[in-house]
Every structure is written in C-alpha cells, then in structure tokens.
C-alpha cells in the first residue's frame, strides 16, 4: 500500500485517479507528495518520501538540491494549464489593442442619463487597433507558446516564433504558417506585440533587459505570462517612460509597476481555471503512480527522462551522482551476488543520474539484502526494489 500526502486544494479529479493500492492523507510517512503552491524550502522530508509531483509547470517552491540528495524525484505537469494561459494571453492581446481597460474605467465613472451621448462625443479617445495584420513575436514555443502562436495566426496576425531549444514534439504542434526566427533580436524588431513563454532559469532571468527592449519596435506592447524575473522591470519602465513601449502586461506584480495606466497586472491567474487545476491534478497523480509502480521517469526536473517496459519480475532503480564508474560498481555488486541482469538503462541530467535494472530471479535473501547493499555504494542517493505481484 502506497501512502500519498497532499498539500493545497488538489482537484478531486486527480485524487480519483489513485487506485485501491493508495491511501491519501492517512500517514505522516508518505511515499509521495502531491502539491501545488506549498513552499517546501524549509520542510523536513520523511525518509520514505520518494516522489513529489507539483501540479503545474513551475517548481520554484521545491528545493531541488535537498530533494535530490534525499533521493526524491521531483515532477511537474507541463502543459496541464497551457490552454488556460493561452486563452488569457489572447484575451489580453484583444483587450490591450482595443483599450478595453481604460474604456471600462471611463464608463464605470460616468453613469447617468447622458452616458450614451457623452460616450459618443468622447469615445474617440478609446480608439484601438485590430489584431489582424499585426505582428506578434512569441518567445518560447513550447506547450503554451505554440498554442498562443496558433491562436494568433487564426486571428489573422503575422506570427514569428523564437525558441533556440525547440523540440521535435513542439515543432509538430506549430502551424506551418508560423515564421521562425533564429535570433531573439530578429523576432522582436518588427513585432507590434511580444509575448514571453520561456521557463525561468539562469539563461532567461533578465532576458528582456535594456539592450533587448531597446531593439523592439517603437510603440510595441510587451506581455510576460511566463515567470517573474524574465523581464527587467526597471528596463521595462524606462521603455514605457520613453514611449519605446506603449504597454506592459504581466501576471507578476511588483510595487514598481503600481498606479500606471500603461501597465496591466493580473494576480498570477494564468493557470487559474477549474479545467487547468483538474488537468494538473490528474497528470500529477498519474505521474506518481507510474513512478512508484514502474520506476519510469517523464517530466522530472531533477532526473532524466528514462522509460523501459517492465517485463521482468523484479526491477531495481537507483538515483545517484553522475560520476565515472557508477554503472560499473552497480553491475559488479550484482555479479558478485550471483544476479543476472536482463536489461539495464541509464541516463543523466546534469550532476544526477538514474539507472534501471531488470532481473528475473532473486532469492529471498537477495531481496532482503540487495537494496541495502546498493544503497551503501558511495554516491547512491536512493535504491529501490520493485516486485511484480
């Protein structure tokens, strides 16, 4: 029986995925955490904890160094909120181009019998522009960016995509009508609107700084619905003050951005829909079950993707440092124990590696001692022994 502990309000659709082999919130020594936004940086992790699945694409609330050192695999649910973010970005493109925010604020302050007449006289100040024929640069064309690009193309916009790490799977999701730029500067130089959809990492923090923003088309609109910190706010504000940008729209608030008519802040609601929360919970639950039952890895942030059919009676999985001779040490220990390896898979992600070993036959004493002996190998974070019923 596997034990699951949840944090935050996890959608029932996700909890319903767990089979009878799982108990939810019935133990303080769980095998898995299913979380959303809870901050785990100061948390003490139970020794039995093997996996954390975060319902969403971000993982800045999880301490990756400590989880890895404790042999805990960390997963996200990429794409689960992609449609929600896409719809919000498209709605903001329309709202900003038609000055809907200022128009609505005007109407809210001017009511009475003469509102229609006053509006007729004064509404020219709210004249906007149509999106059809305008150019949109989509920076990052993964799960969200590809949907935004395709939707904007359907609206009649000319769309330019930029993503130096474009995967084959992502490429299949993008309409052939989307133009691809090889340089960031080339993507943004003639764009009327620029929307950012890249992950937050060392390469993207401050990505839109003064140098990059200065190369945008004068009068352009910038949207950041990826992560806070990707846009240098001081640079964005300077560009607004000098009319290099006409608007900045973001899901990540900061005191610097307050009380400006040319800034629109939404309260981190990109993925805040019932459907997105259900999608993330379902994907998170399925990820946990797949990892606990098969040891296979997909969409982990601290382990490499590695998947192998589980056809034998036993499976060994090891999280360990990515250093020379680790596989050799593991294979030697098994050979010295008289254990024949049927299949072996190994992959690495940065400083961490993951090894899957399938065997058909183990004696009872080997079942008892093998995991403990493997865990004693220096640089092994966690060893698991999975057994089919």
From TrEMBL:
<comment type="pathway">
    <text>Amino-acid biosynthesis; L-serine biosynthesis; L-serine from 3-phospho-D-glycerate: step 1/3.</text>
</comment>
<dbReference type="InterPro" id="IPR006139">
    <property type="entry name" value="D-isomer_2_OHA_DH_cat_dom"/>
</dbReference>
<dbReference type="GO" id="GO:0051287">
    <property type="term" value="F:NAD binding"/>
</dbReference>
<dbReference type="Pfam" id="PF00389">
    <property type="entry name" value="2-Hacid_dh"/>
</dbReference>
<comment type="similarity">
    <text>Belongs to the D-isomer specific 2-hydroxyacid dehydrogenase family.</text>
</comment>
<keyword id="KW-0520">NAD</keyword>
<dbReference type="InterPro" id="IPR002912">
    <property type="entry name" value="ACT_dom"/>
</dbReference>
<dbReference type="InterPro" id="IPR029752">
    <property type="entry name" value="D-isomer_DH_CS1"/>
</dbReference>
<dbReference type="InterPro" id="IPR045865">
    <property type="entry name" value="ACT-like_dom_sf"/>
</dbReference>
<comment type="function">
    <text>Catalyzes the reversible oxidation of 3-phospho-D-glycerate to 3-phosphonooxypyruvate, the first step of the phosphorylated L-serine biosynthesis pathway. Also catalyzes the reversible oxidation of 2-hydroxyglutarate to 2-oxoglutarate.</text>
</comment>
<dbReference type="InterPro" id="IPR036291">
    <property type="entry name" value="NAD(P)-bd_dom_sf"/>
</dbReference>
<keyword id="KW-0560">Oxidoreductase</keyword>
<dbReference type="GO" id="GO:0004617">
    <property type="term" value="F:phosphoglycerate dehydrogenase activity"/>
</dbReference>
<dbReference type="InterPro" id="IPR006140">
    <property type="entry name" value="D-isomer_DH_NAD-bd"/>
</dbReference>
<dbReference type="Pfam" id="PF02826">
    <property type="entry name" value="2-Hacid_dh_C"/>
</dbReference>
<feature type="domain" description="ACT">
    <location>
        <begin position="315"/>
        <end position="388"/>
    </location>
</feature>
<dbReference type="InterPro" id="IPR029753">
    <property type="entry name" value="D-isomer_DH_CS"/>
</dbReference>
<protein>
    <recommendedName>
        <fullName>D-3-phosphoglycerate dehydrogenase</fullName>
        <ecNumber>1.1.1.399</ecNumber>
        <ecNumber>1.1.1.95</ecNumber>
    </recommendedName>
</protein>
